[in-house]
Amino acid sequence: MHRNHPGITIVLLSFVFINLNLLSCSRSAPQIQNYILKLIYNEDADGIREQLSLFVLAQDEDGKEDLDSLYIINDEQQLYWTLKSTEWITVNKDGQLWVGSHRLTMVDGQPLPRGLYRLILTDLGGERAERTIGLDAPLQSRYPFPRLIINGDAFTVISFYPKNTLLCYDMEGTMTRSIPLSSLSGNLKGLGLSTATTDIALWAEDPDAQVGAITKTVSIKP
Description:
The protein is mainly β.
């Protein structure tokens, strides 16, 4: 009869425990599978400012709760933006997770630097994914800034952008509906607006160039 030495048993059990512990702590790095980048001309009280809309198709086998931060870095100008998971917008489309923001701007209101940007997506375990993208939009828009004119119940849009959409807002400033326009003029009553709609704005877009413009909101209440 052979007897196992108790010291060997302890060593073997310790070895198994360590390996199981390592397996349970293994982590998967996040992935940036795709991205959508748009340059937006935004009209506010101070004039027309540029802002970036950036969303990345993020994947992490450890679950979306493991995603932590997205960094957008322009090395040439030594600029960067940080989006934390508690701050970014999450969009689930066709079972895919997109995270990002519509409002990446320069602090001083200057045009955004053209050129290369690095995207770094990190998770809670410190793993990261990196991708380089380019912003090559012209410094001067190819289209004049669009206009939305409201006169009573009639609306008129002056826009050279190929795609135009009315955005509806309630009194708290929440966008409640978007209405693609097939005609650049018409009657608001014919759009079936909700009684909660107090203001509208125009979103004009060139999807092929990934460029858009949004006007200030206009009140439609007397």
